[in-house]
Amino acid sequence: MSAATLNTLDVCNMALGFIGTRTIDDLNEGSVEAIQCSLYWNRARRAVLCDYPRGHPWSFALQRKTLVTASTNITTEYRDWKYCYQWPDDALRICAVHGVGRERVDRSVPFLVRNIRTTSNNTTTATQVIFCDLENAQAEYIIDIQEGDACDPLFYQLLIRKLACYLAVPLLKNNQNKVQEIEQLYDVAFQKANEQAIRGPVTWEVARRAVLCEYPKDHPWPFALKRIPLTPVTQPPEKYAGDWKFCYQWPEDALRVCAVHAPGVGREGRVVPYAVRNIEHEVYYGSSEQVILCDVENVQAECIVDVVDEQVHDPLFTQLVTYKLACLSANAVPDNGENAAQAENIYNAALQRANDRVVQENLKGVARRAVLCEYPKDHPWPFALKRIPLTPVTQPPEKYAGDWKFCYQWPEDALRVCAVHAPGVGREGRVVPYAVRNIEHEVYYGSSEQVILCDVENVQAECIVDVVDEQVHDPLFTQLVTYKLACLSANAVPDNGENAAQAENIYNAALQRANDRVVQENLKGVARRAVLCEYPKDHPWPFSLRYIKLEPELARDRILLAKHGIIYGGGWGYCYKWPKEALQIRSVHATIEREEGSVPFVTRNIFGESHLGSTKQIILCDVPDAWAECIVDVVDEEVHDPLFTQLVTYKMACYSTAQANDNGESATRAEALYNAALQKATDRVIQNDLHEDLRRMDEERRYADATDDWLMSRT
Asked: pTM for the whole thing?
């Protein structure tokens, strides 16, 4: 509703029309109506300005001013008050007295208005003064308005009725019933205006903020969350000094504080205990009267703030605001209890559904992370693995200084650390010993409280991270998350032990099947690589052969090699890295042309360990720019030789029976089957080679005979 402009003649004529008399053209025209309007105009206007509730004054007539100390001596009757101030010259009514110091702005304080009578030269003078206990106080008061000033339309209507009440008595002397009717109409209008002022305006903004604050504290709306550094209170209230170490101002744009986080390397994100107190002993969300108390310095608060932009709102949030607005509107109508209760029920049901949805989504996230972490450490989900360089802790806890050389921060997005890898040429991928400790003595996966300790510098951690995108999830993983979610949901229901135990059993059985599948797949990979490497070196599987250009070692690594007793300066001319994809080196060549023959070479491990395919191995030879003919792992089964597939099956049987307890006879039988099959395969290859040699010898003999016949024919 737009503002109205005060027009004296307009208000007077509408008031006269209200009581049923003739209107006027000018207040100075001399008619009875004009005289009465002039007499009561100021009184009616000031009465409506002052009659409105003190806690909800007309905003267009409010003014704030610093009070002037009164020169009047305070009598004994008022000695309980520390300060006495003059009544402002333009004030009709004092609404509030405020302090002006830090942390006290806008804080209303008790005050008292009194008329102090003084006598001088036999003349008694009454002076209105204001008592309070604040120095340099400010007063918020109502001022009078004049012709042409802007005002509230509701004020305009009340002023017309108030003036009509005053005019009715002198102008309707013989119609007392009409006078009472006009007074009753004003009282009803004033009561409605009073109720509206007390309730406050029912707006979308009020409903929006209510829904933001009423949503569960542990599941706030993500679009409304904001991390805000807190500002210390320089002079905190003394009553909190013994209970808490630090006192902070309430963040200016915060509606509610959800959590307080501690700062510092390795501790960022740690939630710390806190309390919210109001220095006026009042609880009101978002009030600037509130302070936040905790025992940690330089903290940040995770707050709910008002978000006006509806484009970022959750659709469910918008629906809840609509229902809340209906509740507030229904409660604002007098004698509307049934409709108000119905609107409240609809809102509460929608709020419960929203809460259930958020709880379910959070449970799903908990279930997903649990399955990621509960899966065997040596067989993690490939889609959730991430290699992360670790950041050193500049000031590690002293208690770990004597046990480990280096301390690293827990990676921010890591749920679990599977391995720690050392850096450097010839050492990349090397797994090193490590330990995980929590500096607050708490164990919690993914907690920023944890640190990682090891004896190697500049390491990387192979971590399991949370993966929300379901498109990259393994179908078995999705199934396990569903079962885990059922377990969590069943445990959340009171007195539901039987269903919870059943859900737990189903999940554990599915987890065991998944574990068995992964173990089987890993066994298959181990068996496949073993068959590739155990086949005779001079008769490799053709589909697994690769010709790879070798990468020379860097000059700075000669010292590293020397430390491990590998002196190749006098024995070998060149040192090469082991190819990453190579399982076994068959031969080394000076050029890419294999027909030129191979050159002598040896392989060494710079850590004194023998492991096929390990990146710890190096290759030594006497030719530059060397090439290696390697056996590599081939996962694609479509290119496998049928005999190779059979051998892998037998090899898997060997591994499976060897892992079973008290299964020596079966393991021996499986090993015998595999060795027999390997021998058959070797014999087949040797036989094929013999046939190939005989065929080649026959072709050479025929070629020689043909050459002899041709030479004889020429002679």
From this structure: 0.49
